[in-house]
Amino acid sequence: NAGVMQNPRHLVRRRGQEARLRCSPMKGHSHVYWYRQLPEEGLKFMVYLQKENIIDESGMPKERFSAEFPKEGPSILRIQQVVRGDSAAYFCASSSGGELSGNTIYFGEGSWLTVV
Amino acid sequence: SQKIEQNSEALNIQEGKTATLTCNYTNYSPAYLQWYRQDPGRGPVFLLLIRENEKEKRKERLKVTFDTTLKQSLFHITASQPADSATYLCALGIRQGAQKLVFGQGTRLTINP
Lengths: 116, 113
What we know:
The complex is a heterodimer.
Chain A: E1 5-7, E2 10-13, E3 19-24, E4 31-37, E5 43-50, E6 53-56, E7 65-68, E8 75-79, E9 88-95, E10 106-107, E11 111-115
Parallel strand pairs in A: 2-11
Antiparallel strand pairs in A: 1-3, 3-8, 4-5, 4-9, 5-6, 7-8, 9-10, 9-11
Chain B: E1 3-6, E2 10-14, E3 19-26, E4 30-38, E5 45-51, E6 56-59, E7 62-67, E8 72-77, E9 86-95, E10 99-103, E11 107-112
């Protein structure tokens, strides 16, 4: 778990501001996932990326949310014009492969976003 | 509709007993299933993975079973300890073009001394 690094751990934003959440995957992992956990709800898939490619963004809201995983540097989840409903814990995870045989997915400690 | 349900929101067990958590799903064809532990304010920690062609997996005091006919997984912690108190999450690895986990709501387990 300690291998996936997320920052910031806690972020407070006013409505209308932008939130940027960063994730460095475990060493040797090239597959990154973002999940969201709303209060009292389960983890929900948002997006799956490999270096420079978005593979599956079926869980991303259509507006205001974007994600990238550049060739160099961490993966970024960006939320523009935040609203109160965006308040949640955002977890990044990584794995060494994306095959359906089941490469273990390891999670970071999360970034807790509070919109005031 | 597709659903994944963990049997109860909260479970209280006496120290030393076996805790059994249930994960049921409908209208999914998972390639594998994973169990995670999550403590308050922390990220999920991977515990065990079991594939669709496996019936049972063990790791120390943990045991997972996977019945694709019943569409159910059972997660057992034997000789439970207060340190095992946490929320346990079941997650299906589903076939939808890419690897994706679908999580249950979690069961909050408390082991009483």
